[in-house]
Design a protein that fits this description.
By secondary structure, this protein is α/β, with parallel strands linked by helices. It has 2 domains: 197 residues, NAD(P)-binding Rossmann-like Domain (Rossmann fold); 102 residues, Alpha-Beta Complex (UDP-galactose 4-epimerase, domain 1). It is built from 10 helices and 14 strands. α1 links the parallel β1 and β2. The longest helix is centred in the first third of the chain and has 22 residues. The structure holds nicotinamide-adenine-dinucleotide and galactose-uridine-5'-diphosphate (GDU). Nicotinamide-adenine-dinucleotide binds next to α1, α4, β5 and β7.
């Protein structure tokens, strides 16, 4: 297929682009490089553009005869979304709406959208299935939930076929070490811990050890970015006009912050000093996916999402690119 990938110069998008191309699809990346890196595009055509530029998108979709869109472009810092909600609703909601309007205008009706665990807020029960009530606790989560709603309505009214893939914690890097995770500022646990191992930070601060979990630190479900990319590829094949797939993507195994740091110590052989700090606002105690619906619907399984494999791939990338894409 001929596919436009918004946010394809970012972390998850760049890995998905490689999977798409490997499977024989023709791909164009559309990115404003606000958080992404031109180098992450490798040899895939990169078009610099804004989600809000509807006319540019219509022209592009038409001229390249695009058949489907994968939509990764968004802002994704939970804390920043609380202090600057306007920025998040503008980019994530209005930006997505403009993209969908462009697709409608160009008669492109297939889309795979990056949603998030953050749409669930603080669910009482774990693991989290898709039937869990979606009650976000921050503007980032609301912005993604709003787009899910818009997609439902575009499916019903205009025949869009969509998949909203709710990722848990994306992590790891490509096995060949060519691309990896480089967020600026970095807020994600694994890259921060590995920056300590590289000597770029003195220590990692653990955000709270008084959670109702076995060791008191927060539990998350880490899924390898290549497993996420594979699920996107399979979702693309299963889009149906007028219908929406809403699927959790996680490994189904939870690791505490303390366990993640311990695995990073084992993989890197570095002592990785850690100190206890205060809770980070808005962190739920435990988020673990029930991804059985995605497994059945997509005929998909995680292959690289055991934590030592995730950390080893990330460590490979960080060692080879100590300054990221700089
Ligand atoms: N990383 C995770 O653990 C995680 C978890 C759940 C959901 N998600 C979602 O997955 C998607 C990708 O996340 P990521 O970690 O790769 O983020 P990222 O910041 O690395 O990538 C986002 C990309 O979108 C681009 N972009 C942002 N706004 C744009 C705009 N208006 N026009 C054009 N391009 C724009 C950025 O330049 C960047 O290249 C996001 O939608 C995020 O909300 C990520
Ligand atoms: O320096 C750090 C960084 C993180 N953590 C902890 O490590 C865990 C994982 O934190 P991340 O920031 O790596 O990931 P989050 O679970 O907060 O975020 C993930 O889920 C969010 C929604 O909940 C967004 O989708 C986001 O993009 C995605 O990475 C959390 O308990 C956090 O408190 C620390 O203790 N110290």
């Amino acid at each position: 297929m001929r596919i436009l990938v918004t946010g394809g110069a970012g972390y998850v998008g760049s890995h998905a682009v490689r999977h798409l191309r490997h499977a024989g699809h023709q791909v164009w990346i559309y990115d404003n490089l606000s958080c992404g890196h031109a180098a992450a595009a490798l040899d895939t055509p990169l078009i610099l553009g804004e989600l809000s530029d509807t006319q540019k998108l219509v022209d592009l979709l038409r001229s390249q005869q695009v058949e489907a869109v994968m939509h990764f472009a968004a802002f994704a810092l939970v804390g920043e979304s609380v202090t600057n909600p306007s920025k998040y609703y503008e980019n994530n909601v209005v930006g997505s709406l403009r993209l969908l309007q462009a697709m409608h205008g160009a008669d492109v009706r297939k889309i795979v959208f990056s949603s998030t665990t953050a749409t669930y807020g603080e669910p009482a029960k774990s693991p989290i299935a898709e039937t869990t009530l979606q009650q976000p606790i921050n503007p980032y989560g609301f912005s993604k939930l709003m787009v899910e709603q818009i997609l439902d309505d575009f499916a019903a009214a205009y025949g869009f076929g969509f998949a909203a893939l709710r990722y848990f914690n994306a992590s790891g890097a490509a096995a060949d070490g060519l691309i990896g995770e480089d967020h600026r500022p970095e807020s994600h646990l694994i890259p921060i811990v590995l920056q300590v191992a590289l000597g770029q930070r003195d220590r990692v601060t653990i955000f709270g050890d008084d959670y109702p979990t076995p060791d008191g630190t927060c539990i998350r479900d880490y899924i390898h970015v290549d497993d996420l990319a594979e699920a996107h590829l399979r979702a693309l094949d299963r889009l149906q006009p007028g219908k929406g797939l809403k699927l959790n993507l996680g490994s189904g195994t939870g690791y505490s912050v303390q366990q993640v740091i311990d695995v990073c110590r084992q993989v890197t052989g570095h002592p990785i000093p850690a100190m206890m700090g205060a809770r980070r606002a808005g962190d739920p105690p435990a988020l673990v996916a029930d991804s059985s619906l995605a497994q059945r619907t997509l005929d998909w399984q995680c292959r690289y999402s055991d934590l030592p494999t995730i950390v080893a791939s990330a460590w490979n990338w960080h060692q080879a690119h100590p300054r990221g894409y700089a």
